[in-house]
Amino acid sequence: MLLELSGARLLTDPVLRSRVLHLRRRAPEPAAPGALDAVLISHGHRDHLDLPSLRRVDPGAIVVTARGASRWLRRLGRAVVELAPGEEVRIGGVAVRAVPAAHDGRRSPIAARAGAVGFVVEGRRRVYFAGDTEVFPGMAGLAEDLDAALVPVWGWGPSLGAGHMNPAQAAEAIALLRPRHAVPIHWGTFLPLGLGRRHAHHLRDPPHEFAAHVATLAPATHVAILAPGSSLELGGKDR
Fold first, then answer.
1. What does the H/E/C string look like for the chain?
2. Which of 52, 55, 144, 174 has an alpha carbon 20 to 30 Å from 211's alpha carbon atom?
3. Average of per-residue pLDDT across 179-189
4. CA gap 136, 126 in Å, rounded
5. Phi, psi of 116, rounded to the nearest 5 degrees
């Protein structure tokens, strides 16, 4: 997701390649994001922190990431800011604050422990980017008066492991967060090699299932299902 808030342009967890390890892209190749102020990296997993993709984006953009993740970013030779939950950094016209995420942020199962975070980006609008996380009660207090919440509703395979949310769980998160708009993310892009037509429903169904659950659990929230290249304009009164 590309966020444009109060004059700042921030890119979240970019994976811009056609293939990552055993995962193959099943969605259109993304357009070049252009000039950026920052890249937000929620944790070290390769489907979120992809070094070849980071080499493709604006080299002047600051990388903001979780505590412990910078060890995998040093070879890029670019500015990196690590944040623990509750810490924030000012980037142009916005404040970027790290918030908790219930997810194992290690690069691999045998790697040294590293954190995983979400981010609340605040300028004239306030947006929550969840990264990867399970739903947890503390979501109710992450941020007040959210204009939008970007929440994962699936993954890249036919099943989900710990630290993720399915469409029903993501809707529970929205009921806690109470944003004006909810954008389902982390769906419809990658499938493992060898999984084809039989699993194609995993690429299209999760956001619609999410929207149906939100209509029941948080009817005041508008769900925007965005195809690659489309956008959501946040309305309402400036802060």
1. CEEEECCEEEEECCCCCCEECCEEECCCCCCCCCCCCEEEECCCCCCCCCHHHHHHCCCCCEEEEECCCHHHCHHHCCCEEEECCCCEEEECCEEEEEEECCCCCCCCCCCCCCCCEEEEEECCCEEEECCCCCCCHHHHHCCCCCCEEEEECCCCCCCCCCCCCCHHHHHHHHHHHCCCEEEEECCCCEEECCCCHHHCHHHHCHHHHHHHHHHHHCCCCEECCCCCCCCCCCCCCCC
2. 144
3. 96
4. 20
5. -135, 140
Strands 62-66 and 38-41: parallel
pTM of the model: 0.94
Side by side, the strands of the sheet bearing 62-66 are: 2-5, 8-12, 38-41, 62-66, 80-83
Q: What is the C-alpha to C-alpha distance for residues 158 and 74, in angstroms, rounded to an integer?
A: 33
| pLDDT classification of 177: cutoffs 50, 70, 90 | very high
Task: Specify which of 113-117, 140-144, 161-165, 213-217 reaches the highest per-range mean pLDDT.
Answer: 213-217
pLDDT at 134: 96
Nearest CA to 207 among 151, 156, 160? Answer: 151
Which tens digits make up the pLDDT trace of 101-140? Answer: 998 866 666 566 678 999 999 999 999 999 999 999 999 9
What is the CB neighbour count within 10 angstroms for residue 29? 10
C-alpha angle with apex 174: 169 to 176, nearest 5 degrees?
100
Tokens at 52, concatenated: 């070849």
